[in-house]
Amino acid sequence: MKRLYTLILALAAVTALQAQTYMRLWRGGESTRMTLSEVGDMTFLGQSIDIKGTNYALAEIDSLVIMPQITVNWKGGMATVNVPATIKDDIEVSTLAGHVTITNKNVWNEIELTLSGNCNNGSLTYEGAYKSTIRLNGLNLTSKSGAALNIQNGKRIDLVLTNGTVNSLTDAAAGTHKAALYCRGHLEVEGGGSLTVKGNTGHAIASKEYMLLKKSTGTITVSGSVKDAIHCSQYFEMRGGTVTWDENMKGDGIQAELDLMADDITPEPDPENTGNLTITGGTVTGVMTAETGDGIKCDGLMTISGGTIGLQATGTGCRGIKADMGLTVSEDTAPTAITVEASGAEWINPADPNDTTKSTCIRVKGQMTVNAGTISVTYTKGCRGIKADVYTKNGGTVINNGTAS
Q1: What pLDDT is attached to residue 47?
Q2: Alpha-carbon dihedral sign for residues 246, 248, 250, 254
Q3: Number of C-beta neighbours around residue 286 at 10 A
Q4: For 193-206, what is each residue's pLDDT tens digit?
Q5: How far apart are CA 83 and CA 353, in angstroms?
Q6: Cβ count near 368 (within 10 Å)
Q7: Fewer CB within 10 Å, N- or C-terminus of the chain?
Q8: Exposure of 35 in the CB half-sphere (CA atoms within 13 A)
Q9: Burial class (CB in 10 A: 0-12, 13-18, 19+), 108
Q10: How many Å apart are CA 344 and CA 291, to the nearest integer?
């Protein structure tokens, strides 16, 4: 009954808010975006609803959301911002040439920001206290004073790479910001477009809380970073898409950091999967050249149950995969294929010659369990293949320097 009531309210909103442009239909954590002109009349049919000639069971629908759209377009060194009249009282906008700050005072209705255009000296800072969608629709933005996209909103942020579009973000060098693309809240990525990010001060992409790549995610390329390519201060989950970085990445490829509760006298891990890293689909490829840099790294538990991973640890003391509380490799609905090469020299701590780290394909502290999938590790003299405190193989294929087991 509650679900039906919510959908009826959404249907009424479509009629009452024709000036607002978009509706998003959420099912199973994924969404479909439609203009109101596309939606037309929606018809309830008992336990289902007809939208654009497609029948959706009510039990499958999480929500229908009517979303006002703010557009920001950069051209040359200037930015143009358009805010619908229906939400003008809730939105504050300030611009200085290509640098835009948008503050959303609305705490009851989701909005969408659509960003497009080209600018060699611009940025967007978005502040608010309610979940929002940020859509990249052919955006090429370079900042010379801070992050290119600075999302100071602690709620769920849906970052959409519009299908068929090419987008890029580059931040300023030698700044105090954390990343070229920074999100203070939960960053969820979807959409089949591409995004190239370069981090000239710190990370390329950083999320203070979790980061999720949905099945529909396109391609994310890190063309360079002073620190990590992707850094999460809670957990990282990948269901699809492609993430890639090259030798210009100077930190870790993907890192999920353990987030401790600062207000506890004796800190304990945050209960929301903090430090964990999960991959169930998609493709990850990368080269690690930085000293002691890791490809895929987590402070907690790592689970890989689908997807294709290809990593090269060529830097001194680098590791392809590093899990600090255990690793489980299996297969769920998609095949799992992991290939890691290690060829870097051994790292020796300048302050303590007895403190050394060998370049390693896979390093697991705690239990490593292989239930299914294919793991192939190749390493040169002086490097390691797989090092785990405890190793259990229940299935799958593990190829260690050409020898299969």
Answers
A1: 81
A2: negative
A3: 24
A4: 999 999 999 999 99
A5: 61
A6: 24
A7: N
A8: 3
A9: exposed
A10: 9
Backbone phi and psi for residue 196, each to the nearest 5 degrees, phi listed first? -110, 130
User: Tokens representing 212?
Assistant: 């999720």
Residue type, 364: V
State the residue for tokens 């299935």: 395
Here the tokens at position 379 are 């390493």
- What are the structure tokens assigned to 54, written together? 């497609």
Which residues, 6 or more positions from 37, have their beta carbon under 8 angstroms from its beta carbon? none
C-alpha 310/C-alpha 338 separation (Å) is 6
- Give the C-alpha separation, 68 to 294, whole Å: 42
- Quick check: helix, strand or coil at residue 89? helix
Question: Phi and psi at residue 57, in whole multiples of 5°?
Answer: -70, 135
Which residues are CB-neighbours of 152 under 8 A, at least 6 positions away?
A: 125, 126, 127, 184
347 vs 315: CA distance, rounded Å = 9
Q: Are the C-beta atoms of 284 and 258 separated by less than 8 Å?
A: no
* Single-letter amino acid, residue 216: S
37: confidence class by pLDDT, cuts 50, 70, 90: low
Cα 297 to Cα 228, 363, 400, 402, distances in angstroms: 10, 10, 21, 25
Q: What is the pLDDT of residues 326-352, one digit of tens each?
A: 999 999 989 999 999 999 999 999 999
Half-sphere exposure of 315 (CA within 13 A, CB side): 22
Q: Is the pLDDT at 18 greater than 60, yes or no? A: no
pTM: 0.89
- Assess contact for 75 and 118: CB atoms under 8 A: yes
Strand 211-213 and strand 236-238: the pairing is parallel
**CB 58, CB 50: distance < 8 Å:** no
DSSP H/E element including 313 = strand 307-313
Per the rule left: phi > 0, alpha: psi between -120 and 50, beta: everything else, 98 is alpha
Start-to-end C-alpha separation, the chain: 55
Tokens found for residue 115: 């960003």
Distance CA 237, CA 242 (A): 13
Mean pLDDT computed over every residue of the chain? 90
Contact (Cβ atoms closer than 8 angstroms) between residue 132 and residue 157? yes
